[in-house]
Amino acid sequence: MRRDVFQAIADPTRRAILTLLVVQAMTPNALAEHFDSTRQAVSKHIKILTECEVVTQRQTGREIYYQVNAEKMKEIDIWLERFRKMWEDRFDQLDNLLKDL
Amino acid sequence: MTNNFVFETDLAAKKIYVAREFNAPVEKVWKAWTDPELLDKWVGPKPWTAVTQTWDFTIGGIWLYAMVGPEGQKHWVYAQFTAIETGSAISSTGMFCDREGNPITEAPKVYRDTKFSSLDGNRSKVDMVITFEEESTIKMFAEGGFKEGSDISLTQLDELLAS
Fold first, then answer.
1. A70-99 vs B26-34: helix crossing angle, rounded to 10
2. Helix A70-99 to helix B149-162 angle, to the nearest 10 degrees?
3. What whole-number distance in Å separates Cα of residue B110 and Cα of residue B150?
4. Average pLDDT of span A67-71
5. Which residues of A touch B30 (CB under 8 A)?
6. Helices A39-51 and A12-23, axial angle in degrees (round to 10)
7. Quick check: B134 and A4 CB within 8 A?
8. Are the beta carbons of B135 and A87 separated by less than 8 Å?
9. Are A7 and A50 in contact (CB under 8 A)?
10. How many CA atoms lie within 13 A of B116 on its CB side?
11. What is the per-residue pLDDT across B39-84, written as a single tens digit (0 to 9) for each?
């Protein structure tokens, strides 16, 4: 199955996980404590976030820590900024055209 | 004079909301959005120019145009009209194209709902909701050859200020 950033943030639990991870890297256990759902359900969300590449893991001693992949998250901002700019430029050109219409 | 440009993203819903006011009556803005000769004059962000190849402004009809770059590179843009309310609203489905301008139907689509309304003082407003099937769609639209975007728009701004 194809994973993308939108899929990562489409779910409220996953958004909550990302919000927690933005503050600090966390172990799966520490993350699960923040949610009422089962540890298994939280793990499944973490797995999807990892597959979407918005979260990466690193091993520290015996613990696995999850952290936000800032580069991947930044990609969206860059695309959106370009898209915004494109519309802004088009509208400016439309302004000029409307003057002569 | 303010044009109240709005660009809001709701990524979780894969939606982008764009709004803009124009210092012209809604009839003129509608004309600029529905006459291919006029569209070609503003749709291509400089230095790109839009060249309409096919224009059939009916429900189910197609608008196929090429974005032509300064070195002659071409990006085809394909849109099918899904709803038209003359003078007030247009809906369309956008698709990516191959090099010959044929739509790739299995690729992710983008849906656009545009509304046109009158404002006081002979002004008008355009409201647009763009819905993406996939993140990759935004990426492709945003990267559709407009990487130089920011530099170009500064030049355009200079031109606007000078005019």
1. 110
2. 30
3. 24
4. 87
5. none
6. 80
7. yes
8. no
9. no
10. 21
11. 999 998 888 899 999 999 999 999 999 988 888 888 888 999 999 9
